[in-house]
Amino acid sequence: MDISIVVPVYNEEESLPELREWIDKVLSRHSYRYEVIMVDDGSSDSSWKVIGELASGHKEVRGIRFQRNYGKAAALHTAFQAASGEVVITMDADLQDSPEEVPEMTRMIMEEGYDLVSGWKKKRHDPLSKRIPSKFYNWFARKVSGIGLHDFNCGLKAYRKAVVKSIEVYGDMHRYMPFLAKKAGFSRIGEKVVQHQKRKYGVTKYGIKRFIIGYLDMISISFMSRFGKRPMHLFGTFGTLMFLVGFFSAAWLGGQKMVYSVKGIAMHRVTESPYFYLALAAMIIGTQLFLAGFLGELISRSSSDRNSYLVEEKINF
Q1: CA-to-CA distance for 12 and 119, rounded, in angstroms?
Q2: What range defines the domain where residue 146 resides?
Q3: What b-and-e string marks burial along 141-173, b requiring 16 or more CB atoms within 10 Å of the CB?
Q4: pLDDT tens-digit map of 249-287
Q5: Which phi and psi angles does 40 have, rounded to 5°?
Q6: CB 166 within 8 A of CB 77
Q7: CA atoms in the 13 A half-sphere facing the CB of 213
Q8: Pair (188, 130) in one structural domain
Q9: Element (H, E) at 251
């Protein structure tokens, strides 16, 4: 199999037949052997019925249906596990991502040696209220991740098969696939300007909540990539420093009291000094941080079930 095209679907019944026809027209023209994996993420419309009809008439279409809505990351992760193509392409089901870009992105993976090629919607057909926050979000993502992409959240991306089989996508981390790939050792990350289509059917699934969540996820993934497997390195370090600061501060107050007592100099009791309680608080906080790191180490060694999704039905698997 040359190419696997992964399409997360959520209430996109109108666009699916046109998308399949468009994909087939482009890839058949280039004689690619391909499959289209459509993941119905708990749609409430007739999307699954449409996928079934497409799969019955076209053997290259495969379908996965979730019992309920888990989110785009869940759909991508499940499809990645099923994909068999040497190049895996992701695109949205709303026809805003153009299949015409697939051959060139595939060439960049196969011939130029990229591990991942991300689309860049340089000219976007979105309202200003969406474009301005997106620019800030992408600027922030570049600074934190160190990856010079202009459009992290573009749904149109191409991956080498080894990439999607090696990384774990969960929560809302689909926005940071390049970051996840880089942390997994796939550093050959490229970018291609892609055509962004105007929305033809339905309404956007994203609102202002997406940008707030995106910012928090960026902080989360940055932390997890550095300390997720070794929480003691962070919490243990800060905990030890806090405890030592508190301990030596308390020791200094105690030593000062002893010296003053020997010399007969009047001095308030140590417990009357506010610095004593600051030192005590520092030792308590330091101990708690150290224990948090220790417990984190124990938890990190336990198996995770965050990618256990209930698949209701499959087609052509």
Answers
A1: 22
A2: 3-227
A3: beeebebebbbbbbbbbbbbbebbebbebbebb
A4: 989 888 888 888 877 787 778 778 888 899 999 999 999
A5: -80, 110
A6: no
A7: 12
A8: yes
A9: helix 237-262
143 and 253 part of one domain? no
Whether residues 154 and 245 share a domain: the answer is no
Q: Is the domain of 108 the same as that of 236? A: no
Within a domain: residue 159?
Answer: yes
**The pTM is what?**
0.73
Q: Is the dihedral of CA 208, 90, 13, 173 positive or negative?
A: negative
**Residue 206 in tokens:** 């994203």
Residue 174 maps to which CATH number?
3.90.550.10
Q: What is the DSSP letter of 304?
A: -
Q: Write out pLDDT tens, residues 13-69.
A: 999 999 999 999 999 999 999 999 999 999 999 999 999 999 998 999 999 999 999
Q: Read off φ and ψ for residue 46, nearest 5 degrees.
A: -95, 25
What is the bridge-based pairing of β-strands 87-90 and 116-120?
Answer: unpaired
